[in-house]
């Protein structure tokens, strides 16, 4: 006969122990891996998601430690990749916005300062200028004051420093002051 008449006792830590502390830690780790399989997360984001799913603080801490020890959860690498992805094309962001977004995602302040501080000022100005020129080309016949206002707002919202914005707009609009002329461009 293929079936046993008596059930076996589960070994400690086996699937039969799923309701215990070890089982919760395993389920928490599995949930963490599923989250990381979808997209990269910071330790803080992952911790919040696991806590929302009802895992204990101990299980969440154990899962995060396990993942960090294996290099699968690294806030510094996450921040570097995030900055690289948002330093080009339509997603272009300045250092202020990058820092604010990384802090919002739970990256520790020392890592934010390190990663955002590595951005070169010449590169930032060149990217801000390219963005301003491309937007200016779509503005049509806007006067200098309007163009200055719109472009400075755009660059400020993207997180560029006020000094960078002013410098770029002086070059792009070829006017030292936004009040210098109300002539169309």
Automatic annotation (TrEMBL):
Keywords tagged on the record: Cytoplasm
A GO cellular-component term linked to this record: cytoplasm
Pfam name, any one: RecX_HTH2
Domain RecX first three-helical, chain residue ranges per copy: 28-67
Stretches the record annotates as Disordered: 1-24
Compartments, record wording: Cytoplasm
Gene Ontology biological-process entries: regulation of DNA repair
RecX third three-helical domain span: 125-169
RecX second three-helical domain: residues covered: 74-115
Gene3D superfamilies cross-referenced by the UniProt entry: Winged helix-like DNA-binding domain superfamily/Winged helix DNA-binding domain (1.10.10.10)
Top-level division of the source organism's lineage: Bacteria
Purpose of the protein: Modulates RecA activity.
Family according to the record: Belongs to the RecX family.
Name of the featured protein: Regulatory protein RecX
Organism whose genome encodes this protein: Caldinitratiruptor microaerophilus
